[in-house]
Amino acid sequence: MCIIAACAGLSAGCAGHKRVRIEGVLPADHPRVYVAGRVERPLSIDGRLSESAWRTAPRTGLFIDIEGDTRPQPALDTRAAMLWDDEYFYFAAWMDEPHLWATLLKRDSIIYRDNDFEIFIDPDGDQVDYDEFEINALGTEFDLRLTRAYRCGGGYDIEWNMAGLKSAVHLRGTLNDPSDRDSGWTVEVAIPWSCLADTSTVPCPPRDGDTWWVNFSRVQWPFDVVDGAYVKPDGAKEDNWVWSPQFAIDMHRPEYWGRVQFADAPPGVRPFVPDNQVVPRTVLRRVQAAIEQYNADQGVLPESMADIHGLWSPIELPTMTSPMLRIDGETWTVTMVQNMSNGEHAYWQLGPDCMLTRSIAITCE
Q1: Per-residue pLDDT for 134 more than 80?
Q2: In this predicted structure, what is the pLDDT of residue 115?
Q3: pLDDT tens-digit series, residues 201-225
């Protein structure tokens, strides 16, 4: 049920690059993890990723299909890395690409209609009020804020902007020229903490050891060459290649996003250290998937935990109560209590509308 993971990807694809070490035990179905090291001086955002901080930062494991390992491995390699300082959360991506093309020039266009690179951030892991950024090979930006997952009744705000955002791309080849073969492109992004803080319940910038919820997606379209230009075929379907798999064609499942731990240390020095939230969050993620599967199969919500018996794998811990399910009309809520070694009790609640909350109480004798 549990493994000691030694590679940030928890799978193949770490060879040849510095790997994120994991000091401890993670469930086998845990999302991918990463440790973002701290840089001493601001990075120059030019897309080239030539600064020493990026050369020493661990890279993620190779991206895989959004639905997981049951799908074919992506045809082109993609990796990412992260750094931070007092002002910015920095992101980098390296993407192999023999055919560089892009068409959208207007900011806040629906960029995934081109090949693109996407970033998703939920600072406090509550599965609501999270942010998304997309960029294509022209460097055209698209940012938006989402209230919660679409399947949980969520909406979005395209007018919202990441104030102070910096981004750049660097092309290893020629754009929109099918007559040659290109090598790829790199992306560099700096997102100010100030534009993430207003909806977060955790410090922005983070503290040493804090863990955030982050994922990446690369959207890749098939193409034809018509009259010397790249053209998407009618009815074409895109590929979605991601860092941490979603197990559905849906990036808006924050519970499956990767876990990024911040280290007040240079990049590549510190391991990822699982905290006491790993097990309860794993249980709630599994229960949520079981409830959604039952609803999809039966057309109704389960009435009790007994109804989803066999649809999820429990984790038995003496310090944690079994999850309890409450149904209220068309909504559901799951609760459980975690007793911690310092005498505190963490009260976990998932739902309604997929929101995850954790409150702390101390029992007085």
Answers
A1: yes
A2: 98
A3: 999 999 999 999 999 999 999 999 9
Say how far apart CA 344 and CA 338 lie, in whole Å.
9
The answer on pLDDT for 74 being more than 50 is yes
Instruction: Quote the pTM value.
Output: 0.94
C-alpha 244/C-alpha 30 separation (Å) is 9
How many CB atoms neighbour CB 306 within 10 A?
A: 8
Q: Helix, strand or coil for residue 278?
A: helix
Kindly give the pairing relationship between strand 184-192 and strand 88-96.
Answer: antiparallel
Distances (CA, A) of 14 to 5, 125, 241, 355: 12, 26, 17, 33
Calpha distance 258→73 (Å, rounded): 19
Q: How far, CA to CA in Å, does 66 sit from each of 135, 144, 240, 306?
A: 18, 21, 6, 31
**Long-range contact set of residues 24-29: C-beta below 8 Å, sequence gap at least 24:** 24/272, 24/273, 24/274, 25/274, 26/2, 26/274, 26/278, 27/1, 27/2, 27/3, 27/278, 27/279, 27/282, 27/315, 28/1, 28/2, 28/3, 29/282, 29/286
> Can you read off the two tokens belonging to residue 243?
């860092």
